[in-house]
Amino acid sequence: MTFSASVIGASGFTGGELLRLLDGHPQFEITQATSRKYSGRSVGYTHPNLRDLKLKYSSPEKLEPVDVLFVATPHGVSMSKIDAFSEASNVVVDLSADFRLKDPLKYDEYYDGHSCPELLEKAVYGLPEIHRDDLKSAKLIACGGCNSTVTILGLYPLFKSGLLTLEDIIVADIKVGSSEGGASRSTSSHHAIRSGIVRPYAPISHRHEAEIEQELGAKVAFTVHAVDMIRGAAATCHIFPTKQDLSKSLLWKAYLDSYGEEPFVRLLSGTGGNYRYPEPKVVAGTNNVEIAFEIDERNNRIVVFSAIDNMMKGSAGQAIHAANIAFGIDETIGLSHRSLHPTGAP
Ligand SMILES: NC(=O)c1ccc[n+]([C@@H]2O[C@H](COP(=O)([O-])OP(=O)(O)OC[C@H]3O[C@@H](n4cnc5c(N)ncnc54)[C@H](OP(=O)(O)O)[C@@H]3O)[C@@H](O)[C@H]2O)c1
After folding, report:
1. Residues taking part in catalysis
2. How far apart are CA 209 and CA 317, in angstroms?
3. How far apart are CA 240 and CA 171, in angstroms?
4. From the CA of 72, how far away is ligand 1's center (Å)?
5. 3-122 domain in CATH 3.40.50.720?
6. Is residue 323 helix, strand or coil?
7. Distance 131 CA to ligand 1 centre (A)
8. Between β-strands 301-308 and 233-240, what pairing exists: parallel, antiparallel or unpaired?
9. Atom of ligand 1 nearest to the CA of 10
10. pTM
11. Is residue 259's pLDDT more than 80?
12. Strand, coil or helix: what is 199?
């Protein structure tokens, strides 16, 4: 059985990634790809890897009815157009932040308010590792942010298992690539300026903090650095636990209990081979998350490493994974390819 799918905001980075994944998916068929700027042009005009796709951009003002609508537009668009989106499709998968938070007051605190707060309860946060059952009947799916996704997935088993408490101090340090900023240029994203950087941005009060707190039920002090890669988000989380005697075997049990059956989670032991800890480059182009941890007894610290491709597990891959679940399709279909190795910068 195949399902029709459209991508709103298809000329952007995550929109292009959605088209790439949908094109290779045996059970989704692309009906419409929208762009205001490039309406009438072929999708290969903006996405050279999709040159051979016989598909032209159309205006987002006229939506065709479809089984699933993927929305890859900037924050604020989905909430303002949700009536039109829901009219076009029973299932809306939104990649923006518009429906991620349950508490409308958090939109006042971290964003610029919300225009349809009554829908927030209906939306399901798009991470299958946490919300698989709810995704099965979801009509509005809110995919997580890339920085939040890499942090949440790294820490989730420790909270689920009760090994961490609300009193524990957790500091998350994130490094992220330039594709996170989307396809439109700014002075600070100009290649001559951005190349070679390790630049802290939003060092405190990053918007994704709100999602992390919501999904983990705990505060995480969070700082993001823009670094010199194109794809990828890597989190290093430093945890100073109040519980003593947290052995490696207890931690392994927690991670295996949460992720032992997860098709896209790779737990690394930190031993053996040249690539012992998670690296964005290794997961680039895949829907995988790699996770590893160490215990630093001298400093009473646990350190957790996690890495994803921001445009895959951190957005478009997550969206397809969630849609697979919502449509009762085998979860891994369209997402099971491996990364390239060796390859250039991710
Ligand atoms: N990049 C990432 O790694 C990443 C990760 C997680 C989540 N996200 C989220 O995913 C969303 C898309 O991100 P992106 O990086 O793909 O952004 P992008 O490259 O800037 O693309 C945005 C797209 O939205 C379209 N658009 C803009 N305003 C619109 C409007 N009012 N109505 C209809 N279409 C509109 C743009 O095309 P036209 O102007 O031609 O219409 C463009 O195709 C954002 O909300 C972002 O926060 C991104």
Report:
1. 146
2. 22
3. 9
4. 5
5. yes
6. helix
7. 24
8. antiparallel
9. 43
10. 0.98
11. yes
12. strand
Residue of the CA atom closest to atom 20 of ligand 1 = 182
- Measuring from each residue's beta carbon to the nearest atom of ligand 1, which residues come in under 6 Å? 8-15, 35-38, 60, 72-75, 77, 95-96, 145-146, 179-180, 182-184, 310-311, 314-315
Q: Yes or no: is domain 146-308 CATH 3.40.50.150?
A: no
Choice from 315, 320, 321 to test ligand 1 binding pocket (greatest atom count within 8 A of CB): 315
Structural contact between residues 215 and 268, judged by C-beta atoms closer than 8 angstroms: no
Q: How is the chain split among helix, strand and coil, in percent rounded to 5? A: 35, 25, 45
pLDDT level of residue 55 (50, 70, 90 thresholds) = very high
The full length of the chain comes to 346
d(CA 335, CA 21): 7
Instruction: Give 264-321 pLDDT, tens digit per residue.
Output: 999 999 988 989 999 999 999 999 999 999 999 999 999 999 999 999 999 999 999 9
C-alpha of residue 178 to centroid of ligand 1, in Å:
14
* Integer-rounded Cα radius of gyration of the chain: 20
Extents of the domains making up the chain: 3-122, 146-308
